[in-house]
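Sequence only, no structure available. Ideas?
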Amino acid sequence: MPETTGTREALLDAAYAAIVAGEWARVRMADVAAGAGVSRQTLYNEFGSKDALCAAVATRENDRFLAGALRTMEAHEGSPAEAVGEAVLWGLREASDNSLVKAILTDDTGLLPLMTTRAAPLVESLRDGIADFLTEHWPFLSLPAARDVAEVAVRLTISFLVVPTEPVEATARRVAHVVERLVASPSRRRRVGWVGRGGRAHWTGDR
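Reply:
I predicted one. Tokens follow.
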């Protein structure tokens, strides 16, 4: 049976501490369990493997980033591009001071794939959360179209985070510009692939 929320959080906290200390490659599950004050069997009952534990740590942090991004978008509802651009700026600034992100990006932990080749679960979670926000606040966007917009924005943001080539403000403006071009104003939707259907708009590009 899964353990209590308190036990789970303690295990995630212990794993988080090992990752940010650069010890993940050599830390044992028994060490994580001891750090949380539980048995190794309790840890295995909850997560099953070291990889699953690591993924859970990343998911928890990703959920925090998504919550912060949505709060930022809520405060900037002028347009989808403005909302996404401000969320990107917030996210990049937050990531620059985030101990887990910095530990992953140094690759001393061997966890860089969590933001590259194994990033699909995190990308999908961010994409879906942002897409839901976009369709709720701008009803002319269909869910498939909003998901396309959100995924492009998320992937661009992660790319600039992993390989920064400019100040975060410039990156946020760049992503906002891409979103603006994808969404466009109602009068321009047809030119960029948007057509009306039943009072709503939908994306007609390749899927």
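The beta strands are 194-197, 200-203.
Hope that gets you unstuck.
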